[in-house]
Structures are given as structure tokens and as C-alpha cells.
Amino acid sequence: MGMGHHNSALRPENCIFLFFVASISGYLWEVLLGRVAEGQWCNRGFFHGPWLPVYGTGAVLIFLLLYPHRKQPLRCFFLSAVIGAGVELFTGRLLHKLFCLRYWDYTGEFLHIGGYVCVYSVLGFALAGSVFVCSAAPFLLSCWERLPARPRRALLALLVLLFLADAALSLLSPNGGSGVAVPAPPTD
């Protein structure tokens, strides 16, 4: 695959693949977390499909910005914390402002910022982001690039089409309901 070549790893196809891996993994994590914490299965995101783009966006940003530093895990740890917190804070505020919905609320947690991020979520981003960029992404990409190009592109095209259809649906009618999103007053 040529993971030693910086440009090869950062190709758009690889970033799209990593976006979907992280978005779907984040969805599975949140569904499992909801099952354990609340005793129920539910889709906890803005989208209706099995993905949480906030995870995918954070993962791809971390990958793009930190891949050159993947041999420096401590640096990746701290920078992943900053990038992850920024993505979660921005996304939470954006969803609140546009749709008057809160999909998560860390109010009452240690060192929270507006309930959108807290010290625990930032530490989670730091750990997950550094493991992702230093170990998981290079491994996943080496497996991915062993597959023939045509099936890889077909799978990504299908995922992108399904994602875009879900995005259109979700913009018109965001996923909501008990245990998913909490109506919140508009922001200034």
C-alpha cells in the first residue's frame, strides 16, 4: 500500500473510507453505551442511518492533521484532545442553533463547556484519536488497500449515496424521540 508514503495514505478514497469506519464505529459505540446506561437500544444521532458523522469528521480531521506525527503518540494524544473537543463543541452548538435540539449534554460533569464537552469526553477523544492515528488507521488502510480497486470504489459510492440520502432526510426531519435528542431553547 505504501503507507510509508504520506500522500498515499491521505488520498480522498482513504479519507472517505476512514470517515465511514469511524462514523459507523461511533454509532455502534453510542448504541451500546445507551443500552448499558439506559437499558434500551436506540439510534442516538441526528441521522437516521447507522452512522454518527461527528465521529467520522473528528477521525478524518485527526488523521489528516496528525498522520505526519503518527510516530509521536504523546503529541497525537494531546492534539487529538483539542481536535476532538473542537469538533464536538462546534457540532453540538450547530445542531442546537439550527434545530433547537441537544443530542448530548455534559452539564454537571467536571470541567464542562456549555454542556457540549467535558474533561471525560476530551480524554476519550485524546485516547481514541491517538490510537486511531498511530495504530488503527494505518492497519485499516493496509487491509483496505489490499482489496481490488473496483469493489472498494463501488462500496464507497454506495455508502456515499446512502449517506447523502440520509442527510437530506435528516435535514428535513432530524432523528429524535425519547432518549435521543432533547428539545432546547434557541441560542442567541
Q: Can you walk me through this structure?
A:
The structure is a single chain. This protein is mainly alpha-helical and 188 residues long. The chain has one domain. The protein contains 6 helices and 2 strands. It has a two-stranded antiparallel ribbon with strand order 1-2. Helix 3 runs antiparallel to helix 4, helix 3 crosses helix 5 and helix 4 crosses helix 5. The radius of gyration is 17 Å and the shape is globular. The protein starts with 5 loop residues before the first helix and ends in a 5-residue tail after the last strand.
Coarse shape: globular
Strand content: under 5%
Number of domains as seen in the coordinates = 1
- Structural class call reads mainly alpha
- What is the strand arrangement across the widest sheet? 1-2
Rg, alpha carbons: 17 Å
Distance between the termini: 49 Å
Number of helices: 6
Q: Give the ordered list of helices and strands.
A: HHHHEHHE
Task: Summarize the main sheet.
Answer: 2 strands, antiparallel
Q: Helix content range of the residues, please? A: 55-70%
Average residue-wise pLDDT: 91
Could you list the spans in which at least 5 consecutive residues all have pLDDT below 50? 1-5
- For the secondary structure, the number of strands is 2
What would the keywords be for this entry?
188 residues; single chain; globular; 2 strands; two-stranded antiparallel sheet
Helix-strand layout with pairing:
Layout: H1 6-9, H2 12-38, H3 53-66, H4 73-99, E1 101-102, H5 119-144, H6 149-172, E2 182-183
Antiparallel strand pairs: 1-2
Helix pairs in contact: 2-3, 3-4, 3-5, 4-5
